Amino acid sequence: MQITYTPKTQRRAMMAMVLGTALAALGPSSSAADEASPRAVNDISRYCTTCWRNARLPADRWGDCTQDVFERLLERVPTARWDAVFAPEGDERQEFLRAIDTVKKRVQRDRQRTVPMRDDVQDRRSHRDQELKEERDLLRYAAAHTLSRRQQRIVLRTCEGWTVGEIADEMGLPPARVSDEKYKAIHKLQAHFGAA
């Protein structure tokens, strides 16, 4: 006979394993009245999962966090009283919320400590900035030796992100004239760099 696990049976198996591990730490129970109800265990587990999701903890840590909460509850709240953790008030609820908060904060602190600072991002940007500076210097040198003053100014403004209209306004020329000068300057530069 082959057992097929659905997501629902996998969750139940996980909860049973977590609870079994936690209860085994306490040793044999004295009576059935001392045991937590399956509904309480399920509700606590679901509540914890929602807390971890809302706190944006890594999903791969949710199971461990929930188990830590169960462990703290086993130490501080009798299993027969686990149904009371969802009561509006009471010591059981306070212990439950304290356990969740403690586990959540511990994981958040661990994440802050283990997030590496990435120096290579800054290095890449400064490397690219250096390349751009060298390309602009090369362009300025070529422009100074192959273009007229007007064409140099148009090319410089274009490299700075100006539009043809903005350049025309600044230079007091018609946009068509600026566009024509820009076209001629680009062809001269392409010929200079051997790209034409």
Number of helices: 8
> Helical proportion?
over 70%
Q: What proportion strand?
A: under 5%
Note poorly predicted spans.
28-32
Number of domains: 2
User: What is the straight-line distance between the termini?
Assistant: 75 Å
Q: Taking all residues together, what is the mean pLDDT?
A: 80
Describe this structure in words.
The chain contains eight helices and no strands. With 196 residues, the chain is an all-alpha fold. It folds into two domains: 7-114, no CATH class; 119-193, Orthogonal Bundle (Arc Repressor Mutant, subunit A), CATH 1.10.10. Helix 5 (119-146) runs antiparallel to helix 6 (149-159) and helix 5 packs across helix 8 (175-193). The protein starts with 6 loop residues before the first helix and ends with a helix.
What is the secondary structure topology, with strand pairs?
Layout: H1 7-26, H2 38-54, H3 62-76, H4 91-114, H5 119-146, H6 149-159, H7 164-171, H8 175-193
Helix pairs in contact: 1-3, 2-3, 3-4, 5-6, 5-8, 6-8, 7-8
